User: Fold this.
Amino acid sequence: MSSLVLDGGLATHLEALGCDLSDELWSAKLLLEDPDVIRRAHLDYFEAGADVATTASYQASIPGFVHRGLTTAKAADLIRLSVTLAVQARDTAGHGVVAASVGPYGAYLANGAEYTGDYDLDYDGLVGWHRERFEILATAGADLLACETIPSFEEAAALATLLRESPSVRAWVCFSCRDGEHINDGTPFKESAALFDDLPNVVGVGVNCTAPRYIPDLIGHGATVVYPNSGEKWDAAAQRWSGLADPVEFGQAAAQWQTLGATSIGGCCRTTPDHIREIKSRLS
Assistant:
């Protein structure tokens, strides 16, 4: 069985390239300030062996850019630019797929809510909040949408509604999970994933921004798209990160995830081109 190799942490690599992302817009601020470095980061992942570039639109939103002082039209242009940059990198690399990142409402809040699902919007509010950016990204030239880091059942239901309204838009949907059985708001993963069972345009359901140790159990519950974070935790006493940061160990784990049934495998926060290179070598 072959698996699609996804890219790694875009923001992590942008920081390694010297970018300061200490901003509510996170990596999306570079769409405004330095788009060339985003294109370079995508290309680095393709050259490391990734089959997929995930765009820098995770934290990009109309309200977020308007709050920064931009017009709605300029904000929409920057969201489209995120796709253009990934397409340009793909064309330079000569291979690959572009997945337009549809980040959660919590990413816009920039208060950690994507790790809890503790929102101030209900289902209807979430449908309304996501709709405009969803429609922009769906028509911007990407091959599919990556609805990712979804922490709550209500937000998943809102995205399922938008995908049901757009049957020609292909997407994968990935949840952020608190353990090997539940998404971050406590809903069972299987229950959350079932929202997309009747949607043929959803090409995979899985998990991202989740500790690697939970991935085997989540695959057992039906996850096929997996791109966990590095699994590191901050050790305050030693003043360092500890966990599954080693790219070789991560690649070995990826081979296990493939054996268990994952069909698309990559990395999220604090994973790098080195991690993707190891995944590619293990899965080839």
Remarks:
- The first strand starts at residue 4 and ends at 5.
- The CA atoms of residues 12 and 270 lie 5 Å apart.
- The chain has a mean pLDDT of 94.
- The chain has one domain: 4-283.
